[in-house]
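pasting for ref
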Amino acid sequence: MKTPLLILATAALLAPALCAADDPIPRDGKKLSLRNEVQLAIDKGLAFLKTKQLDDGSWSDVDPVHPALTALPLVAFQREPSGKYLKDQPEFMRKGYAFLRGKVQPDGGIYTKGLSNYNTSTALLALLNSRDPKDEAITKAAHDFIVGQQAKGLTDPSLDGGISYGPTGTSRQHPDLDNTLVGLEAVRAYKASRQGIESAGGKDLNWQAAIDFISRSQNLSATNKEKWVSDDPANKGGFIYFPGDSKAGEMKLPDGRVALRSYGSMSYAGLLSFIYADVKKDDQRVVAALDWLKKNYTLEENPGMQRAGLFYYYHLMTKALAAADVKTLETPDGRKVDWAGEVALKLISAQAGDGSWVNDTARWMEKDPILVTTYCVMSLEIIYHRL
């Protein structure tokens, strides 16, 4: 049976189909002004993105061309709160879909030279809402490609169950929590879009193996027996990039031990991955993740990473807390945080006059205004429906 968390996550994945003009979600009259400001910021962000589309329908001239950088803006347009772009499917969006179709590979993936799982997963999300019947075969093949990327029988068994960047064009063959998250999201979205149409005999992930991998990326000794795990107060419940590796590095504990640092963006990725994998809200792993996130709540940095990946951190925060239906976060000092309102104000204040956003720190491509603007627009679209 589906848990409340999974129902909420599934609704979020289906948001393009549900967010029509007659929005059934109750609205707080006290936040009407902020809601209007959020809509204005979304409109400005989408207007900026529209001006940046290239003649071939893509949104990036990065070499090699990554379909994900076109798929993400398409999803942002699909999720505009009124549903107008999804309903009308204007010509510029049809050009974007055509570009993605041109990157379909014989193995069913949608990529060029590398990052095949990430590109396929994001392209699948976009094409699920193209409303073009010819994309049904493409999306099924993409789904099966993602499922086929799940690791098993690796030399390091702690990595089994996860998903990596994919087999092409990169030396990063090991599974990691971020690629696992985008893979789980795409598979869940595909299943939600089918709504029981497909028989149970189709390909599927080994969901228990995925849960085990996610658990092995969490600093929680009660459920993770890897040698590196630490329950020290600074790290307990948070997540790292993959078992044994944290992009936030190490920290020396008062007792002389060394801990792998939990950090913000991956801790939200871990929480969201558990939700997509149907782990219950009262499970100790979910509870511990939320406890870490409450203790480390901030909009000034990506905790543990300073400004690196800051806008992706905002995006994952918004997706995870919305999927978990967290209305307020209570911090250790007793403050009850209206996180959706605070994130909205933070993003609105950071928006440039041309409608774009950009990070002053280049890590993970966040000096690319197209990518960062897409993160911000998608975050505000989620927040809009919570105000």
